[in-house]
Amino acid sequence: MAIRENFTYTDMDLWLNEKRVTEIECLVPDLTGVARGKILPRAKFTQERGMRIPEAVLGMTVTGNYPTEDAAYDRAISTTDRDMILKADPTTITMVPWATDPTAQVIHDCYFADGRLVDFAPRSVLRRVLKLYADKGWKPVVAPELEFYLTAKNSDPDLPLKPPIGRSGRAETSRQVYSIDAVNEFDPLFEDIYDYCDMMNLDVDTLIHEIGAGQMEINFLHGEPLGLADKVFFFKRTLREAALKHDMYATFMAKPMAGEPGSAMHVHQSVVDIKSGKNIFSAEDGSASPLFKYYIGGLQRYMPSAMAVVAPYVNSYRRIVRHTAAPINVQWGVDNRTVGFRVPESGVQDRRVENRIIGADANPYLALAVTLACGYLGMIDQVEPSPMTTDSAYDLKVELPQGLPEALQKLRAEDKLRNVLGERFIDVYAAIKDLEHQEFMTVISPWEREHLLLHV
Questions:
Q1: 403-426: pLDDT as tens digits
Q2: What residues contact residue 402 under an 8 Å CB cut-off, 6+ apart?
Q3: What is the pLDDT of residue 214?
Q4: Which terminus of the chain, N or C, has less C-beta within 10 A?
Q5: Domain definitions of the chain by residue range
Q6: How many C-alpha atoms does 99 have within 13 Å on its Cβ side?
Q7: What is the average pLDDT value for the chain, to the nearest integer?
Q8: What are φ and ψ of residue 182, in 5° steps?
Q9: Which of helix, strand or coil describes residue 272?
């Protein structure tokens, strides 16, 4: 569900007046998932006015730089630095709970001057995939589970992160998976988070302590993908703000601390028939349908080529390591957390598959778009899955790319993903990630100084 289901511009205008909003944060999720945009006084925020920001805002690296020597990027993004037209999506309007004055925030869609959606904008990419499903009479249903770390404040990026101090005055030093008391160490923070999320209609469900020191997981109620992507986008921003209020950091880095597990965004996914409302993954007799098997086959076939989207940074691949609570291959199994694609025990209408490969650092719009794209291609092409894995998949061979350059090479070479996600998106995204890798390679790490400086 959307944050404000079926809200129109008129509804939004009335709601803003009721809340006595004085200013509005007009947001655009960029390819990294960062909130870009402008802040407007309430009086200047009208449907007729619209807003404009440069198209290149969607073509930046996480460091704010632009590819300058990539021909495909230059073909995709105007070299004249033209504007995009932004239009608010009224169903995403919500308050900014941490603001001092009454402030609202609303997500905008990006359009070219001729009225077409900017096809490489993250929300546009997800909409493109959802239309493919709708054209078949299908509606995907997803439920993200988002892991993150709380850490002590760290103003020097050269120093390692540390777990934060809880209300006991001590930091965690041991594994506290599923510990209620360990979560209660940060009760004041989580009370604020739940209050904020309730004010914003984010529909968060359960909170648990994960394996790592200071590592938590929040689960979202299942729903339609665009609305859930909006909620994950808002939640990341909300959690970081709440953590700062309590003198700590919250991070969605895939692997923020050495010796601790990485953070994932596990996504449960199923598909229902729009007319009947039935789960197409289940046959009439209650058994798994052929489409369910083909969906898993599509995930297995295409997810290695989609890895650069669900593991978008150099740091992402530090998480994909054997025996670290993260998958290393595309095996599947029933109630098996060592595989890439887990099928939970469930009823007929709840039959689903959980993609465990996606990192917490992935852009939620793009992550949902690409995992649904893989499943869609599997169903359309009738891709048979491999035999089910019944033992630990950690003992099997690595089947996923082990670094960003390899992942980008696979992404660029996969024509079917290019067709489903959009050619211009692939060209812009790959160019940005290439540049980010080049920027990373200019930095000398502590490991290199420690082991190479005097030994080689």
A1: 999 999 999 999 999 999 999 999
A2: 317, 320
A3: 85
A4: C
A5: 9-118, 129-421
A6: 18
A7: 93
A8: -65, -35
A9: strand
